[in-house]
Design brief:
alpha/beta, DNA polymerase, domain 1, Rossmann fold, 2 domains, nine-stranded mixed beta sheet, globular
């Protein structure tokens, strides 16, 4: 069932014990759906409703009731579920392919919904290229959207991708090229990708904090943030600002994790690296992903990329599901390719834009 049809089934007035006055107050804050309320935390809600008539306890009950109704509609898992119920739920998650069968097998089918997948690596390692290849998956989103038989649901909007760009790495002509090389209609693909260019850390935090509205408006199933940490590293550069930077990074990641779970979307973020002064477990020369423990605890799956001649090497080094493993892949005009099948010229300049 599509997100659009599910959203029509659940309305704010369905929330247990909610009053019309509370609904009006929430809508004044641009919280217009049960989903948007369910992704809030009590402290966030009290902070937004600053009239002093809403305390933490009331906010907690309200959010809890919103999540309760989503649980009753089998959109969220019950507070206590048996393992077989959870297995059935996992069997329903979506996976988004990259175009390389070996790379997708490496991910056990592709990038998962209800999860945050972090892709880290040095510049030129292929992070943005994977993100562009993922955008082409938008072609298959609407085909996988099983609509109900009634005429109203047949008008549901096509499912889309949101690409949040903090490093000016988004290239629409690259998506066009990958789509064309793989036999898709490039314009159809581009119509399903919503690009958001970000210029500073506060703007990024604001966009992510309000991303639930865009997810619902555009019927989004995949959110890409390239990169999650670049602006905060640039603006919070001194050791004395590290605590504040990590706190703000943690809030963004926590919100993204809630979106992934409640909206059943896939979240893919790219991450930079920092120098390391000891032998690294990542197989690179003294580097590791930036963001420290905040990033490590927030990401569901963590993939580290590095260059390997004309190919790239991907390593899953943290996952509750996948074994620690490596795979080689290549980047060509077609996007992400199996390393063994790629016969193009070796990239010698270290530039990630060389395909």
């Amino acid at each position: 069932m599509s997100m659009s049809s599910r959203l029509r089934e659940v309305i704010m007035e369905d929330i247990p014990d909610i009053t019309s006055d509370t609904v009006d107050r929430l809508r004044k804050l641009n919280i217009n759906s049960v989903y948007q309320l369910a992704v809030q935390t009590p402290s966030e809600l009290v902070l937004e409703i600053s009239d002093g008539l809403f305390d933490i306890g009331e906010a907690s009950n309200l959010i809890g009731n919103a999540r309760k109704i989503l649980t009753e509609r089998q959109i969220l898992s019950k507070e206590f579920s048996t393992a077989d119920d959870l297995l059935e739920k996992r069997n329903k998650i979506s996976r988004y392919a990259t175009g390389s069968k070996k790379f997708d097998d490496f991910l056990n089918g592709g990038f998962e919904s209800q999860a945050i997948t972090e892709i880290s690596g040095e510049f030129g390692s292929g992070k943005s290229q994977i993100c562009h290849a993922l955008c082409v998956a938008a072609n298959n989103l609407v085909e996988n959207n099983k609509l109900d038989d009634d005429d109203e649901n047949k008008q549901s909007a096509a499912e889309t991708i949101i690409f949040i760009d903090t490093e000016n790495t988004f290239r629409v002509d690259r998506i066009y090229q990958i789509a064309e090389q793989n036999g898709f209609d490039p314009l159809t693909i581009l119509q399903k990708v919503y690009h958001c260019k970000i210029f500073n850390s506060e703007e990024l935090e604001s966009v992510i904090n309000n991303l639930d509205k865009s997810i619902e408006q555009y019927n989004t199933k995949l959110v890409i943030v390239d990169s999650i940490i670049s602006l905060h590293r640039a603006e919070f550069s001194g050791r004395e600002t590290l605590g504040e930077r990590q706190q703000r990074l943690g809030k963004m990641l926590n919100k993204l994790r809630r979106y992934a779970d409640i909206y059943n979307i896939a979240v893919v973020i790219t991450n930079q690296v920092v120098s390391y002064t000891d032998n690294s477990q990542f197989g690179s020369d003294y580097i590791k992903p930036a963001g420290g423990n905040v990033m490590g605890h927030s990401s569901t799956y963590r993939i580290f990329l590095k260059r390997s001649g004309k190919n790239r090497l991907a390593t899953i080094f943290d996952s509750p599901y996948h074994p620690n493993q490596q795979i080689k892949f290549s980047i060509s005009d077609d996007g992400i390719q199996n390393a063994s099948s790629y016969k193009g010229p070796e990239n010698v300049d270290g530039n990630d834009s060389t395909w």
